[in-house]
């Protein structure tokens, strides 16, 4: 609202500007480049006296820490355990409480599924059911080839439920996307996933009175899928979460005047990047492929998001040695990024995934910003404890983007 107040000397305009309007006003296009390297689920807790990040030899990350500014970030609020969607949105500068995204839409867009206004999608797992207990939420991480066969079988057996068209789309390993097409679907639904092994199956619940019919249809659908798969092993049921329709969200180009690209090889993260307007670059499955891709496309964009997934996967499996190994491998490629001479290089995570907990957690993320204009601090290693000593302190992850933009000289002065 604009409110005019008159006086004999001048008029004052009171304008309630929100954060996005402020960023749009002060952002400016420059040729300077930003590289944001996200090691998913990086933060951890000491298991044998050290975290995987502390135990891993990371000379190149440590050198950056000694020359850059470090801190810790909270994706939402202290004590809140975030999903990957809101955690990444915060890193990209979007308020995760304003933009509530279902994981289904992110996964769907990531594997190239078109979602229209009368359609709803959900992210699914093939899982193992025994005596009405979900004993393996990922069905042993079945091969992707087996996933494709199961999706073909279900598409042939369950094309429609109560006038709702159904389509399965295979993802990687045990993951898939299912799309429901019918006018009037409401995505205010709880996850149909017990979240932990050896718990009973759960059905989706309507989170609003308008979602009751949609919830009933989805639960009927899940029972029919379990019936079709009853003789299949280890994949004899499904779990669904992140029910969502297509949201409206401003792009990074609109907000920050950058030309952004995503280098990620897992569907959900490609979907999220696509949703905020990043160009999705084709990339292989190995860590080395991520950095090959950066070098190949470096002249074409000025903001790069690079996503390393396996730090999170091994954290969820409680596999300390493998998480440590992924960190070590990633460190070896830091010199190749530095050789490109980006104005800003940031190393961080979307959330913590401690091996001790085998799940996402509320613990803060280590954060490192390396730039010629960054204030070096007391941090000498890129670890959770050392970052807690850093100049940047502990801050909301949603502020990471404006810090990167500022150090890349992409923000003008605000006000007179």
Task: Describe the protein's architecture and organization.
The structure is a single chain. The protein is of the alpha/beta class. It folds into two domains: 28-101 and 250-407, Alkaline Phosphatase, subunit A (3-Layer(aba) Sandwich), CATH 3.40.720; 105-244, Alpha-Beta Plaits. It has helices at 19-26, 52-55, 59-67, 84-91, 103-110, 144-157, 212-228, 252-256, 267-275, 287-297, 310-316, 320-331, 334-340, 384-387, 400-407; strands at 2-6, 11-15, 34-39, 69-74, 119-130, 133-136, 160-161, 164-170, 175-181, 199-200, 237-244, 260-263, 279-280, 303-308, 344-348, 365-370, 393-396. The model is unreliable at 1-15 (pLDDT under 50).
Show unreliable segments. 1-15
**Category from helices, strands and their pairing:** alpha/beta
Radius of gyration: 23 Å
Beta-strand segment tally: 17
Task: Work out the helix count.
Answer: 15
Distance between the termini: 21 Å
Keywords:
single chain; 416 residues; alpha/beta; Alkaline Phosphatase, subunit A; Alpha-Beta Plaits; 2 domains; eight-stranded mixed beta sheet; seven-stranded antiparallel beta sheet; 22% strand; globular
Report a brief summary of the structure:
By secondary structure, this protein is an alpha/beta fold. The protein has helices at about 20-25, 50-55, 60-65, 85-90, 105-110, 145-155, 210-230, 250-255, 265-275, 285-295, 310-315, 320-330, 335-340, 385, 400-405; strands at about 1-5, 10-15, 35-40, 70-75, 120-130, 135, 160, 165-170, 175-180, 200, 235-245, 260-265, 280, 305-310, 345-350, 365-370, 395. The protein folds into two domains: about 30-100 and about 250-405, 3-Layer(aba) Sandwich (Alkaline Phosphatase, subunit A), CATH 3.40.720; about 105-245, Alpha-Beta Plaits (2-Layer Sandwich), CATH 3.30.70.
